[in-house]
Amino acid sequence: MQRLLLPFHKLRRQPTCLPAVAPIAPPITWTGFYVGGNIGYSWGRAQTDFSGNTVTTQTFNPGIPVTVTNFPASPFADSHKQSLNGVIGGGQIGLNYQFSPKWVVGFEFDFQGSGQRGSSTVSDPLAGAFCSGFSTVPPLCIAFVPASGSATTTLDAKIDWFGTARGRLGFLVTDQLLLYATGGLAYGEVKLSGLTNASLAGTIAGVPVQGGTSIAFGDSRTNVGWTVGGGIEGKFWGWLSPAWSWKAEYLYIDLGSLDTVTLRGPSTAVGNLFGNTTMTIGPLTTHTRFTDNIVRVGLNYKLF
Fold this sequence. Notes:
Blueprint (H helix, E strand, L loop, with lengths): L7 H4 L20 E29 L5 E3 L5 E25 L4 E33 L4 E35 L2 E28 L2 E29 L8 E19 L5 E5 L2 E28 L2
Antiparallel strand pairs: 1-2, 1-3, 1-10, 3-4, 4-5, 5-6, 6-7, 7-8, 8-10, 9-10
């Protein structure tokens, strides 16, 4: 019998062609350090409580000048709100750590430039007295006539800039959409300035008598307070690299209070038939509490 021999190379198994397998995309993770920018709008409030006194002095000149000072102080007080609305913008840096498939914890710092400012004007009735009779030794007023007028105060409040340092805790609705709560420290520069104009008018023996003066006040300070809020952040679902994310956020901010004390304003004299009537305001005190609400949108880029 004759054998049939095949060449050795034909006995080798021919390779089998397998279908190509697409590479598996790495899972999206929120862990990493990021930077970003934002822009938004704010509506805040500066609630100012203020009080002051006016003091009257009269100098008579019926041949012998006599100055009497024993007048009761004429007080005034009020409380008024300044609305602090404006555009804000700034930047943020932060760090996220995804510690489970559904939860992310992190920390964020931000700094905002602010155009927030507001003003208001309030007028308060002022009741006082003028001297209608006096003794020369000692120089005392022994008879008074009533006087009435007003104290008109203009207030200007500002938040020039502010920032926050906050913790964040988020829940992943999907691997690309994060809902989060946030809260922590807030800081910012607050300012208050104003001017009070006071006037009194009365009649002595049928002759009109009046007096008036003004006082300016103001201060600024960098305050530390607190903030709380929440937001939503999401990836761009394939439009951009997973390193990019968008966010929309709301924060309530309390920047504490600012107090001013102005001990004495300039004395202003008004001449009349009986001599001069001089008025002075002082002390004048203010207490202003600054709060703010902000909404903003922004972009973040994860560096690593």
